[in-house]
Amino acid sequence: MSAVETKVKEVKPLLSKKNRALMVDPLSDNNPITIQVLGICSALAVTTQMKPTAVMAISVLAVLVFSNLIVSVLRNAIPSRIRIIVQLTVISVLVILVDQILQAFVYDISKQLSVFVGLIITNCIIMGRLEAFAMANKPGPSLLDALGNAAGYGWIILAVAFARELFGSGKLFGFQVIPDVFYEMGYVNNGLMLIPAGALFVIAIIIWIQRSINQKFEEA
Amino acid sequence: MRNSNNYVLTFAVIITVIAAVLLAGAATLLKPMQDANRKKEKQQNILSVVGKTGENDYKQFDELITALVINESGEAVEGVKAFEIDLAMDKRVKAKDASHKLQYPLYVFEENGKKTYILQLAGVGLWGPIWGYVALKEDGKTIKQVVFDHKGETPGLGAEINTHAFESQFENKSILNDNNEFVSVQVTKGAKAEGEMHKVDAISGGTITSNGVSNMLMEDIQFYLVYLNKSQS
């Protein structure tokens, strides 16, 4: 029986170099959206406004952290032949829980996010982390990996939403920030920012900036 | 061992049972709160079209609003609770089975001796159901105010139907033309013209949702016409 879990004895300092990398890499060098280009669908769909985007980022964080932890704890017990479906089950349960909780406590935002909360189930970032990391690592590092990747996803979608809401609606978090004077002088909101194509442009610009700062992704 | 059929099967069953218990538990536990949210939202929606937008107005819903149920011949029906009619569901049944009789809820609000009729609407947008309430002034044709809502229209596009900017366009539009024929209010492109009584501007990027609103207004207001006509004479 190999299904017995070996106890974690050695205690690493919380932010050893390796663990730090788990947290920090996904923010930039290994960002799930801009480098791995995963989770693009939801990045396009929910980022027209900041508020729903923030709730989305938090929901993904919750789902990713708990699913990474659960799968990591179960990793030695999960039969490899059905591991994908087990991972999916864990993710689905968590996503439905998040959806139910949003409906009970922040009803209006849950209504705005509607289907996209449910679609966290199909977010490749989460499946990707479970399959690539949690299945092979202890709960501690898995937790850090989840936090790092969720933050990497979160800050990118928030940045995209910032640009889209600002230029698309002249607002941030629902408050008008572009003064009426501008509109009277002939300024118009950019309708492109409101459609999903707008998000692609913003993400592309973020990738562009990132790669000009960090040359190591450029292939000769 | 870990890949033997028995182990795989047992594991799958255990995971499924745990998942089922968790979800059923959460759903049962949170249902009262979710239902309360929905009921409160519906009451607030209905009250909002007659200008009762206060934080706690919904608590007096029963005192402020008289609820009626109208049948297809425009008569008030007894013994049916207006608030519990699921109009969207009834319309779906009707679409499959033409003999199904629809009943529409009608909410009447009275202030300073003047009646306001609140009509309920249910339709479809791009991704799912949309619905709304239209308040008609005492003349039975001028729109006082509307409120729309949706299940899952795209944020920033179709979802804009429940913003003030969109809804306020409907104020003072008329559902009847000068000959008292029903023309509803159309949501269409570039309808901002001064003096336009039967059109409002659609949402750019939300055409299908906008059309859904048009269709819903057309279909559902029609239903109330007989009753409204009678109450005018």
Give the % helix of chain A: 55-70%
What's the overall geometry of chain A? Answer: globular
**So how many helices of chain B?**
5
What does the largest sheet of chain A look like? 2 strands, antiparallel
Low-confidence stretches of chain B: none
What class, by secondary structure content of chain A?
A: mainly alpha
Q: What composes the largest sheet of chain B?
A: 5 strands, antiparallel
Unreliable spans of chain A are 1-9
* Order of SSEs of chain A: HHHHHHHHEEHH
Helical run tally of chain A: 10
Care to describe what's here?
The complex is a heterodimer of chains A (220) and B (233). With 220 residues, chain A is mainly α. Chain A has one domain (32-210). Helix content of chain A is 63%, strand content 2%. Chain A contains 10 helices and 2 strands. Chain A has helices spanning 17-24, 40-45, 50-74, 83-105, 107-113, 115-118, 124-134, 139-169, 180-184, 196-213, and strands at 171-172, 175-176. Chain A has a two-stranded antiparallel ribbon with strand order 1-2. The radius of gyration of chain A is 19 Å and the shape is globular. The N and C termini of chain A lie far apart (50 Å). The model of chain A is unreliable at 1-9 (pLDDT under 50). Chain B has helices spanning 5-48, 61-64, 87-96, 164-167, 207-232; strands at 65-70, 104-111, 114-124, 129-136, 143-150, 186-188, 199-201. Chain B has one domain. Helices cover 38% and strands 20% of the residues of chain B. Chain B contains 5 helices and 7 strands. With 233 residues, chain B is of the alpha+beta class. In chain B, the strands form 2 sheets. In chain B, strands 1-2-3-4-5 form a 5-stranded antiparallel sheet, with helices on both faces. A two-stranded parallel ribbon of chain B has the order 6-7. The chains are: A mainly alpha (220), B alpha+beta (233). The A-B interface holds A 1-3, 45-46, 48-49, 52, 77-82, 85-86, 89-90, 92-93, 96-97, 100-101, 103-105, 107, 111-115, 164-165, 168-169, 191, 194-195 and B 1-3, 7-8, 11-12, 15-16, 19, 22-23, 26-27, 30, 33-34, 37-38, 41, 127-128, 149, 151-152, 154-157, 159, 204-205.
